[in-house]
């Protein structure tokens, strides 16, 4: 693969970024707009000493960036995909257990999930996953609420606009996009049902005519009901939620696929298969982690499929279900073969973030690339973790060759607490509670 001219990519990225400045909320009809926020626009001119300090800091930063470039990393990746997914498949629909293309061809979507709504997400990020990794779909995991904040309910307007911007990037790139209402810590979807109805009504009003869109209405229902701590979040609880959220979407978008969460961190598809929703083009969520879940989980899927339940694996990991514990390539291969045999579409958790987890596909804590290089996408192998190399090999249909240089992906392990308040990684809550439940 030939090397990429970094200066040209930087110039291109800056040019594209200037075109993305307009907020996507401007596309909404006035009656669906969120409340306006007020903020002062007055700014004070910097003093002479402040200007001097800023100039000195900028020069120092530029010098530091130049001196920390690693000239020894391998080549940046280049395009492999010969055609974008939307060009190949067009409008998706459901035919029995299978997702099918506009022409009726059976389709298995495969791709990556983000870890939240921040990090390296930009046009180059989407382009790299679509063109260099051959992802058919990208899932944007928008956390709804967590105890330490920073989620949708804390700042709806910013999160809504970010989601719109990311959807626009996928539309421009020609890949499918999953809009993920990512409940986890607060496991009853009904707790923020009104917010979900509002969110999906507005998203579908904007993008209902775009064949790229897939709606995931509740990531991982779990635990006990928010209004009755003695009652579990079972399928009836989830059904109550789905039967209000899905019509809100269908009022604007009668065609695109919807993915509905299932009980026990989206694993009890066998139970749901006994009494599914009476809706068209709806699939049901199944999640697993190769280091924690084996044949007993595959048996759940087989039972559900035998009962006629269409399934979408919107999240799976190569690690333990905590996100840590290293990578399990043999167990992961059993799962990817199983999903291929049963034509189950999937997204891998996750492209990663600053939280150190084995399941991160990218080495966010690595010094293989400078901060400016990371944002350019087309990441060289030195910036990709063992998990990322495995998943990319599956996406590209190439042999997975583990690194043999003694690197154990320590930058992607859960050696240090990721959350300063709880001391847990983002998916550790899932691991602990799932163990107690089962």
Total number of domains = 1
Which fold name is given in CATH as the topology? TIM Barrel
> pLDDT average, as an integer?
83
Q: How many H/I helices? A: 14
Task: Indicate the proportion of strand residues.
Answer: 5-15%
- Strands of the biggest beta sheet: in what spatial order? 4-5-6-7-10-11-12-13
Report the biggest beta sheet as strand number plus sense, adding barrel if it closes: 8 strands, parallel, barrel
Proper CATH architecture: Alpha-Beta Barrel
Helix proportion range:
25-40%
Keywords for this entry:
438 residues, alpha/beta, TIM Barrel, eight-stranded parallel barrel, 14 helices, 36% helix, globular
Verbal overview:
36% of the residues lie in helices and 14% in strands. It is α/β, with parallel strands linked by helices. It has one domain (106-437): Alpha-Beta Barrel (TIM Barrel). An eight-stranded parallel barrel has the order 4-5-6-7-10-11-12-13, surrounded by six helices. The longest helix has 20 residues, at 48-67. Residues 12-25, 30-69 and 410-438 have low confidence and may be disordered.
List the helices and strands and how they pair.
Elements: H1 6-19, H2 48-67, H3 85-89, E1 93-95, E2 98-100, E3 106-107, E4 110-113, H4 123-132, E5 137-143, H5 156-173, E6 176-182, H6 193-207, E7 213-216, E8 224-225, E9 228-232, H7 235-250, E10 258-260, H8 263-266, H9 269-272, E11 282-289, H10 295-306, E12 311-317, H11 329-341, E13 345-349, H12 371-374, H13 386-396, H14 428-437
Parallel strand pairs: 4-5, 4-13, 5-6, 6-7, 7-10, 10-11, 11-12, 12-13
Antiparallel strand pairs: 1-2, 2-3, 8-9
Helix pairs in contact: 4-5, 6-7
């Amino acid at each position: 693969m030939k090397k990429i001219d970094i200066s040209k990519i930087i110039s291109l990225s800056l040019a594209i970024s200037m075109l993305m400045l307009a907020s996507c909320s401007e596309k909404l009809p006035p009656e669906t707009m969120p409340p306006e926020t007020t903020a002062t626009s007055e700014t004070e001119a910097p003093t002479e000493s402040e200007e001097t300090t800023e100039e000195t800091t900028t020069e120092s930063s530029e010098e530091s960036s130049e001196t920390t470039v690693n000239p020894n990393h391998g080549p940046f990746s280049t395009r492999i995909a010969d055609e974008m997914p939307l060009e190949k498949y067009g409008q998706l629909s459901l035919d029995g257990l299978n997702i099918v293309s506009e022409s009726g061809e059976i389709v298995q979507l495969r791709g990556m999930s983000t870890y939240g709504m921040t990090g390296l997400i930009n046009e180059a990020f989407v382009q790299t996953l679509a063109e260099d990794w051959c992802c058919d779909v990208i899932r944007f995991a928008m956390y709804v609420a967590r105890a330490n904040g920073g989620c949708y309910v804390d700042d709806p307007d910013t999160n809504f606009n970010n989601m719109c911007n990311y959807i626009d990037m996928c539309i421009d790139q020609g890949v499918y996009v999953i809009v993920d209402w990512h409940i986890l810590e607060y496991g009853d979807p009904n707790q923020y049902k009104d917010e979900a109805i509002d969110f999906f009504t507005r998203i579908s009003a904007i993008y209902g005519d775009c064949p790229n869109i897939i709606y995931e209405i509740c990531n991982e229902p779990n635990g006990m009901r928010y209004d009755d701590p003695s009652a579990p979040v079972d399928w009836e609880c989830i059904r109550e939620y789905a039967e209000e959220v899905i019509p809100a979407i269908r009022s604007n978008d009668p065609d695109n696929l919807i993915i509905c969460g299932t009980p026990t961190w989206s694993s009890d598809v066998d139970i749901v298969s006994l009494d599914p929703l009476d809706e068209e083009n709806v699939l049901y969520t199944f999640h697993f982690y190769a280091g924690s879940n084996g044949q007993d989980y595959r048996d759940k899927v087989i039972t559900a499929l035998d009962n006629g339940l269409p399934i979408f694996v919107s999240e799976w990991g190569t690690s333990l279900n905590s996100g840590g514990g290293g990578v399990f390539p043999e167990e992961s291969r059993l799962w990817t073969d199983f999903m291929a045999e049963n034509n189950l579409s999937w997204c891998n958790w996750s492209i990663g973030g600053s939280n150190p987890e084995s399941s991160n596909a990218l080495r966010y804590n690595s010094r293989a690339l400078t901060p400016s290089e990371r944002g350019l996408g087309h990441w060289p192998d030195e910036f990709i973790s063992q998990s990322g190399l495995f998943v990319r090999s599956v996406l590209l249909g190439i042999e997975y060759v583990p690194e043999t240089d003694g690197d154990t992906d320590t930058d992607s392990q859960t050696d240090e607490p990721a959350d300063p308040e709880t001391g847990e990684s983002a998916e550790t809550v899932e691991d602990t509670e799932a163990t107690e439940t089962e």
